[in-house]
Amino acid sequence: MRIYIFKSQPKPELRAFAGDLAGSKLPDQFKPWHVTGVIRPENDPPYKFARKDIESAIEDQGFALWRMKPPASKAAAGA
Fold first, then answer.
1. CB neighbour burial string for 44-55, b if at least 16 within 10 angstroms, e if fewer
2. Cβ(69)–Cβ(29) under 8 Å?
3. Does residue 2 contact residue 19 with C-beta atoms inside 8 Å?
4. Which residues, in sequence order, are bridge partners of residue 17?
5. What is the 3-state secondary structure (H, E, C) of 10-36?
6. In the chain, what are the domain boundaries?
7. pLDDT averaged per 10 residues in sequence order, the chain, 79 residues
8. Of 2, 15, 18, 69, which residue has the fewest beta carbons closer than 10 angstroms?
9. What span, in angstroms and rounded, lies between the C-alpha atoms of 50 and 8?
10. Strands of 3-8's sheet, edge to edge?
11. What residues pair up with 67 in beta bridges, in sequence order?
């Protein structure tokens, strides 16, 4: 299965995996969604996510969501 990666425009930290390029089953409340990448069947997902879990969520719900951690600020990094 090809897995498409999306980013929500109104919630930039919110990302999603979907099984179709259009993201037709992604939640409307976080539209618009923009494709940011694709995971081919022979490749592993990013961030050590389990492909089996992603594919299961896509089959059950049509998508899988996750949030990116905000980047560490320079102040927090001691700069």
1. ebeeeeeeeebb
2. no
3. yes
4. 5, 64
5. CCCCEEEEECCCCCCCCCHHHCCEEEE
6. 3-67
7. 97 97 97 98 96 98 93 56
8. 69
9. 22
10. 33-39, 3-8, 14-18, 63-67
11. 14
